[in-house]
Amino acid sequence: MSSSWRRVSRSEPCPICGRPDWCLVSGPEGSPEAVICPRTESPRRAGEAGWLHILRPGKRPVARSISIAIDTDRGGDFANLAAACERALNVEPFRLARLAESLGLSIESLQRLSVGWAARHGAYSFPMRRGDGTICGLRLRSLDGRKWGLCGSKQGLFIPDGIDATDRLLVCEGPTDTAAVLDWGLPAIGRPSCNGGTRDVVAYVRLHRPAEVVIVADADAPGQRGAEALAAALLPHADAVRVVQPPAETKDARAWWRSGAEAKDVLAAIEAAPVRQLRIGTRCGAGQHG
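Above: the chain's sequence. Below: its structure in C-alpha cell form.
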C-alpha cells in the first residue's frame, strides 16, 4: 500500500462517506487501498485526522456509523445537528445501551430526550431548547461524565417528547436528572444548571400553564439556592409552586432514582412540601407569597 495520502475531491469522493472534502485516500486513483475518514468510525483511530479504513480490492466498505462535521467557527443549524447525532446513535444502538447502563437509567427515557452521538467529539449529545421548544444548542457528555456545550450553543432546557404538563410539571437540573424523573413516569423538563434557564422555564410554564410546578432541587447549598430563586421567578406565572429535594443520603434526582425510590415516594415528598402561591395585598397592592 502506498504511504502517500491525497485529499478527496468531487472527481474522487471518499469511498467511505461519499463526501468530496475532509477525507484522505491512499493508493491508485479510483481504487484507493486505504482511507482516513473523520466522519465514519472504524476500530483504528488516525490521530486528529479521523479513522483509518483499509479497503479490500474491489469492495466498498459499509459505514459502521454516521458522524457529523461541525463548523464550530460559524455555529450551525442546531436542529439539523441534533437530528444527525440522533441518527448516528440509531446506527449503533450499543452506544445508547452503554450510556443507559452507566447512568442507571432506561433507554426509553434517554430516547425521549433525543440523545444522540457526536462521533467527532466522542460524546453523547442532548439538544437544548428555548421555552417554546426551539433547539438552541447541544450539551455534550462523554462516557466518563465530562460535560460541555458545543461551540456556538446557547444554554436551554431539556424537554422530552410526549410530555403532558397540564397537571403537574417537575423541573430538574440537567438531562440525566430529567431522565430519572421520566423513569418514575412523571412529567419533567430539565434546566441547564442550578442557576440557569430561568427565563426559558418561565416561558415554558407560561406557554403550557401547568396547574402546579415542582422544582426538584439538588441537596447541596447551590442547588437549594437556585431552586429558591427559580421559585420566586415562577410565582407570578404559576398557580402553585413547590420545592422538593431528595433525602439527605442522595444528592440529586438520579441518585434518588438509583437508590430504589419509587414514584410513590417522590409523590409523597411533593405532597409534604408547602404550596407557594402569589398573593396580592389588599391594602397597597403589593405581591406576597406564602
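The chain has three domains: 6-54, 71-156, 157-290.
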